[in-house]
């Protein structure tokens, strides 16, 4: 049975909707205030929330901003007649539709049907995607970010086009996961996906790792060995951290990328393979080309299609979705206020760091809510110099806080030691982050507090 939560302080309207929706076959709960709505939404799942944007106890818009990205429900906003600007804002904050008072039941029913359809489609899409991907990988591509949606679209297009693809992005943004996804979407999905970790192969072994060697090619080559490119035949060759390939190897790789043929070390025969090359890097290859560290002809061969994966701080709207995704496995929950803290943090380690933070907290939590064990870490300061002047009391306080953070990484523990509330700890950590941010930007408002 599909469920609806009504958040409306007009008793008559609320009761009327409740009655009609029940007889239309919905499970309905109804509350009069934002506070009760928050409570119910935290404890239950609703398919649709009908939200009056002007609640007497506060702002419905505020509630929408807070919860639209955080819970799985679809929000339909009820506005006063002629309240267009609020409606626009509501849509921006994540509502799927708005209806203006007074409205007929048909209008309401239509709007709910549309919302339910959208929700079902999203869910199907999601299961389909996860199903397509490796079952044990716990991957999600659910997103509210236009930037990331574009990335997914480009990956799908690249998968079809069978061209060489370069994935660029900071550490932990999901380059390898997207490379695997691309492979799974492509016509090569049944063939191998072979990873070459360019950062871990020593220069003198590169050639034989990539292209293999014949027996006796050099001392120690007791048997013929197939190279990674040969193993990838028919499939995808993933050159991870391609920026780390030494120049000497780049020339050999270039020849292979151009001709798709190679010789094993110590071999005479030219071998052809059919592989698609997907490369990944967190370095600026163009800059490296300028410095003479990366061959421009190689760059232009591998980046037929280039996809830039945004860091998590540029797709903050996805942080609540990811947090909930990582929590699902542990059957844990998180409070909205903590979720907001997490959404503000810049996540230099991106999805990997977020996942580690959530998993760690989940493992430490015995109860249902992981909040006590979460502490969005302060940003690393940019300056080496501790203060550059005699420290003020505030400096010392923040420095001590940074120390406690490094030592315990738990807001509840830090609060206990300092004899203050968790809220205060969060506030101070925010201050610390802000100050570090300011001093990175060269503002004179305070020196960075070094964390080491
Ligand atoms: N779409 C996703 N769904 C779930 N988890 C993800 C997703 N993308 C990334 N992660 C998490 O982040 C981790 C890092 O992803 P991945 O190895 O693809 O990043 P990367 O960009 O290759 O990073 P690096 O540059 O450090 O190698 C994964 O192991 C996984 O835990
Ligand atoms: Mg990687």
From TrEMBL:
PANTHER family: SIGMA L-DEPENDENT TRANSCRIPTIONAL REGULATOR YPLP-RELATED, TRANSCRIPTIONAL REGULATORY PROTEIN. PROSITE patterns: RESPONSE_REGULATORY, SIGMA54_INTERACT_1, SIGMA54_INTERACT_2, SIGMA54_INTERACT_3, SIGMA54_INTERACT_4. The lineage of its organism: Bacteria, Pseudomonadati, Aquificota, Aquificia, Aquificales. Keywords: ATP-binding, DNA-binding, Nucleotide-binding, Phosphoprotein, Transcription, Transcription regulation. GO terms for biological process: phosphorelay signal transduction system; regulation of DNA-templated transcription. SMART domains: AAA, REC. This is Sigma-54-dependent Fis family transcriptional regulator. Gene3D superfamilies: 1.10.8.60, 3.40.50.2300, P-loop containing nucleotide triphosphate hydrolases. Residues 3-116 form the Response regulatory domain. One of its GO terms (molecular function) is ATP binding. InterPro entries: AAA+_ATPase, AAA_lid_NorR, CheY-like_superfamily, P-loop_NTPase, Sig_transdc_resp-reg_receiver, Sigma_54_int, Sigma_54_int_dom_ATP-bd_1, Sigma_54_int_dom_ATP-bd_2. Residues 141-363 form the Sigma-54 factor interaction domain. CDD domains: AAA. The modification 4-aspartylphosphate is found at residue 52. The keyword DNA-binding applies. It comes from the Bacteria.
